[in-house]
Design goal:
The chain has 19 helices and two strands. Helix content is 78%, strand content 1%. It has helices at residues 2-19, 23-51, 65-95, 104-130, 134-152, 158-193, 203-209, 215-233, 241-248, 251-280, 282-305, 310-331, 335-365, 377-380, 384-395, 402-416, 420-445, 459-475, 481-494; strands at residues 54-56, 61-63. Helix 4 runs parallel beside helix 10 (251-280), helix 6 packs across helix 9 (241-248) and helix 10 (251-280) packs parallel to helix 12 (310-331). The protein is mostly helical and 498 residues long.
């Protein structure tokens, strides 16, 4: 019932929002759906912690520790973004991008579009995590693309349409490769499993028989899946859509894409990673993940150092963290998956805070430029500005924040796998990224008063920033045991002995 509730809540919210005419009712339904979906995710995680796995419809929907972790993180970001979206869109409606479209009726139509599509977006992300069938999982990932494309075009600007078009083209190419990889996986398993039932593509069935798959077909399948879901995750060189999309989408949508979509793409990749290592051994898949992970982290360094927009800066930060998680998974053993999943957890909590502070700065100053920066935001945004700096310190892995712990776990995994060269490059890249991010945001926050009016002006946008900041600080010193139990159980699912 927890799985059913998790999927039905956002679907109902989307359907109800389509029929509503009053914007305040749309906001209420959106907030209620976020709270209820988070409750369902906690209910589901509790069931997994007590029973090990939870299934529905004869195993068609299947939730283990890894699925439950991704669901919980997605639901958390959905919950955090919901109240922020109310304040963010209300301000747009009164003075910024929405009012540029013209009539009140047109603005209400745009808001209905947001409040109907965002729950549908969340539903697709939840379905990615709970679908046992790899084909259904692929359809759900495609669903996240289709729903988010229309959210990227929310403002209807020329640059928004260009970003959505680029996202659609690259995403379609990537997902086509992922589909071919899924088909090849079925082909490699067909002689072993026999029959042609839908359960032949269930991950739980495939994982139990992966050692006997056709090795040549499985090798090609993983390459295609890595390129396909790697595009969705923003792994280099398939990352180029992210800066455009994250800078054009509404801030709550960008936060969901930078965490939920990234987690779903890496989750799908991790499922195929398990099948590949059980069929071919750890070296092939691990080597590819290490190469793509290092390339992804390294390629963000020059773009972060010379960046001119803080929204695009955060996009390159998300690309960097996707690379870190892929790299950690490639290191293998138990420490590699553990580092990846801890990093996924801490990143999912910290990155929305960064986007919310950036959104507050952009709406307050009227732009997101780092060159025409309104220096001294500390004087005009007394809450968002210092929290912006705190979030940057946290997301770059500065001690004692939680992402320092996960990045240290990645280093331990690299040394345990005897990949000293990769670890050395990783350290150099991470230090350069820290310098670039901290320099840009410190310049934005500190300085003489800029002449902007002082005040946050919206409780809806301020309270999520305060709440997330408190959680980030608490996680620096304490990780709740149920969360660690989920992470540890998920890590053992992905474990490969070095």
């Amino acid at each position: 019932m927890a799985i059913l509730a998790l999927l039905l809540i956002p679907l109902l919210a989307s359907g109800i929002s389509v029929m509503l005419r009053n914007v305040h009712w749309m906001e209420f339904v959106h907030l209620l759906s976020a709270v209820a979906a988070f409750g369902a995710a906690i209910w589901l995680a509790t069931g997994v912690l007590s029973a090990g796995t939870v299934t529905l419809f004869g195993g068609s929907l299947y939730v283990d520790h890894l699925s439950a972790l991704v669901v919980a993180l997605t639901a958390f970001v959905y919950l955090a973004a919901a109240p922020y979206a109310v304040g963010y869109l209300r301000l747009d409606d009164t003075g910024h991008s929405l009012s540029e479209t013209g009539s009140e009726k047109g603005n209400r139509r745009k808001l209905r579009k947001y409040y109907a599509l965002t729950p549908l977006f969340a539903f697709c992300m939840f379905m990615v995590a709970v679908a046992n069938n790899l084909g259904v999982m692929w359809i759900a990932v495609e669903g996240t693309t289709l729903t988010s494309i229309f959210l990227v075009t929310f403002y209807g600007h020329r640059t928004s349409l260009e970003a959505a078009w680029k996202y659609a083209i690259l995403g379609s190419v990537g997902l086509s490769m992922a589909l071919f990889g899924t088909v090849l996986t079925y082909y490699s398993a067909h002689p072993v499993l026999g029959g042609e039932s839908l359960s032949s593509l269930n991950w739980s069935v495939l994982a139990a028989n992966a050692a006997h798959f056709d090795k040549t077909a499985m090798r090609l399948a993983f390459i295609l899946v890595l390129l396909g879901y790697g595009t969705k995750a923003g792994l280099a060189p398939m990352h180029t859509w992210k800066p455009d999309v994250y800078s054009e989408a509404p801030v709550p949508v960008a936060a969901l894409m930078a965490t939920g979509v990234l987690n779903c793409a890496l989750y799908a990749l991790a499922r195929f990673y398990v099948l590949t290592i059980r069929c071919l051994g750890p070296s092939f898949a691990s080597q590819l993940l290490v190469i793509f992970g290092l390339l992804t982290v390294g390629i963000t360094v020059p773009f972060i150092l010379v960046q001119r927009s803080h929204r695009r800066l955060l996009a390159y930060s998300s690309i960097d963290h996707g690379g870190i998680m892929a790299l950690s998974l490639g290191f293998g053993g138990i420490l590699g998956p553990l580092g990846m999943l801890l990093h996924m957890t801490f990143h999912s909590i910290t990155k929305p805070l960064l986007f919310f502070c950036s959104g507050n700065s952009q709406q307050h100053a009227g732009n997101d430029s780092l060159k025409k920066r309104p220096s001294g935001l500390l004087h005009s945004l007394p809450i968002s500005a210092p929290m912006f700096l705190l979030a940057v310190l946290a997301v770059t892995g500065t001690p004692p924040f939680s992402m320092f712990q996960s990045e240290f776990m990645v280093l331990r995994a690299g040394f345990a796998a005897q990949r000293t060269g990769a670890v050395s490059l990783f350290v150099v890249f991470v230090l350069a990224i820290f310098c670039g991010l901290f320099y840009h945001v410190a310049q934005l926050v500190f300085g003489a008063p800029s002449g902007l009016a002082r005040g946050e002006f919206s409780r809806w946008k301020t309270y999520p920033v305060i709440g997330l900041s408190m959680i980030v600080v608490v996680l620096a010193f304490w990780l709740p045991p149920p969360i660690y139990a989920l992470v540890d159980g998920a890590a053992h699912i992905l474990q490969v002995q070095p």
